[in-house]
Design a protein that fits this description.
Rossmann fold, 2 domains, 21 strands, six-stranded mixed sheet, alpha+beta, Coagulation Factor XIII, Chain A, domain 1
């Protein structure tokens, strides 16, 4: 795959055709006795191709996201960039001093107090002892642990340990930061404080490579992002596009893909979307016993025959719950003239569990429905309230007991 790059600045990180494979033995010996009893037994292996032929360019000062499901190769790639793993093939070039936020607190001694650990860890990260001592007060203030510096680390909570390790790591004078979801155990206030620190570093021209499962953070903070699946790069570009691809990979696709830009000139558009109750009234909330209709209004910019109307209902987390299309069950939508408007309604029994749901209306040409003319993602929302069992749907269930 050719390298993808940002044209506005020189490269801080260059990855060219990088692959990394791990050998996983079928039989492992845990004692010397086992080896002595089976001296001629051959060790066989499975191969895990964690990273496969990745090429990309990350520009100086860029906040770059790497996303993918568990086991997709995100952390392996980051460790290859950090130099923790040696690549099997390819080449990685880094222009500047690098600080990996991959496993914070590595090197901390639990039997020493926090004060000594901060100094030792700062020196391990590349500071001189004089620099470590001079920045000690900044570490303590950022971590908000002023009253705990004489406490041994084995008595720290996991959250306190991460705060101390992060506050120490950001003191390193690095141009490139590698971040591998190290803030997952921090509380919300500290996570926000860390992100504010990232923005400060970015304003100073630092380069940040950010691995995360949190698509909200990726879309909010990153300039670009890439999606990995089975060790291969499947997409790279705008964070919102990558976030949607990630959700589709995990939770299912929308009824249609986004329309091509060439279709916008035709004038076909979706102007409104809403939910209705059984009485035809627009609603933004409903109880579980209420019937619902998912509705949208579209205006045609050209003559169309048998267009495909569709709606996709998703949760706040991006899970696809319902995909309904007018061409299902041999339904015929009819013919429409350019300039004509129409309202599409999809009635459903409300078997949804209590939560907030988002409606994406779309319109496509006849046929497979892949040639989308208009789509507005998450255009309307509704809150369903009730008791709920904790599942995704509250289906009507007929339960019977048979005594034996």
């Amino acid at each position: 795959m050719p390298a993808a790059s940002s044209p506005t600045a020189p490269s801080a990180v260059s990855v060219e055709g990088v692959s990394k494979t791990f050998r996983l033995p079928h039989q492992q010996y845990s004692t010397l006795k086992e080896r002595a009893l089976h001296p001629l037994r051959r060790t066989t292996y499975d191969e895990l191709r964690a990273v496969q032929d990745i090429s990309l360019e990350i520009a100086e000062g860029e906040f770059f996201g790497i996303v993918g499901r568990n086991g997709s190769g995100k952390s392996t790639l980051l460790k290859c960039i950090a130099g923790i793993y040696r690549v099997d093939t390819g080449r990685i070039s880094v222009a500047g001093r690098l600080s990996p936020f991959i496993e914070l607190g590595v090197g901390f001694n639990p039997d020493l107090n926090a004060r000594d650990n901060v100094i030792i860890n700062a020196i391990m990260l590349g500071l001189s002892r004089k620099q470590a001592m001079a920045r000690f007060e900044h570490v303590v203030a950022f971590a908000e642990l002023e009253g705990f510096m004489d406490l041994r680390l084995k008595n720290y909570s996991s959250g306190m340990l991460v705060r101390l390790a992060f506050a120490t790591a950001i003191q390193v004078d690095a141009e490139i930061l590698l971040i591998d979801e190290v803030l997952a155990v921090g509380d919300a206030a500290f996570q926000q404080k860390c992100f504010e620190e990232f923005f400060r570093l970015k304003r100073e021209g630092k380069t940040i490579v950010f691995v995360s499962h949190d698509m909200y953070s990726v879309e909010r903070f990153c300039n670009r992002a890439m999606l990995l699946e089975h060790g291969q790069m499947t997409k790279i570009g705008d964070p919102r596009v990558i976030g949607r691809a990630y959700h589709e990979l995990n939770f299912g696709k929308l009824a249609h893909d986004a329309p091509a830009e060439s279709h916008s000139a035709s004038g076909t558009a979706i102007s409104d979307a809403w939910f209705e109750n059984a009485g035809g009234e627009r609603v933004t909330s409903a109880s579980q016993e209420d019937s619902l209709s998912m509705c949208f209004e579209a205006r045609f910019g050209e003559d169309l025959k048998e267009p495909v109307f569709a709606v996709t209902l998703r949760t706040d987390l991006g899970h696809t719950i319902i995909v309904a299309r007018s061409d299902q069950h041999s339904h015929v939508s009819g013919s429409f003239k350019g300039g004509e408007s129409v309202v599409a309604r999809f009635a459903i029994p409300n078997w949804l569990t209590p939560a907030r749901y988002l409606l994406t209306p779309s319109l496509a040409r006849e046929g497979t429905g892949e040639d989308a003319l208009a789509l507005v993602e998450d255009m309307a929302s509704i809150v369903v309230h009730g008791t709920g069992s904790g599942g995704i749907l509250e289906l009507p269930i007929d339960m019977r007991l048979e005594r034996l």
